[in-house]
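Quick question, first post here. What does this chain look like in 3D?
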Amino acid sequence: MIIDGKIDGKNDSNSSSLSGALVHADLKKIDQIKKDILAFEGVEIHAVDENGKIVITIEERGGNKIMANTLISIQDIEGVYSASLIYEYSGDDLDE
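> Answer (accepted):
Ran it through. Tokens below.
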């Protein structure tokens, strides 16, 4: 629950989050698209299939809220058809 900018009474400025996303891209441009995706802070590629689908994670650390802007920027890469958030987890326990 969010109360006065805090989640469950804790300040979330130092919390971390991990988001999973699915990117659908043009196979003809897949190598450049992968390079462009990896240029973003906190982004890792975990899988690429023969249909141009790319599984990525976006990690935010120390209250650095980059996920939304990163996902929007990935959608703007030439040859990317879509980038969809699939999963998001936030908490102080990501460093454990």
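The helical segments are 30-38, 67-75.
Residues 30-38 form the longest helix (9 residues).
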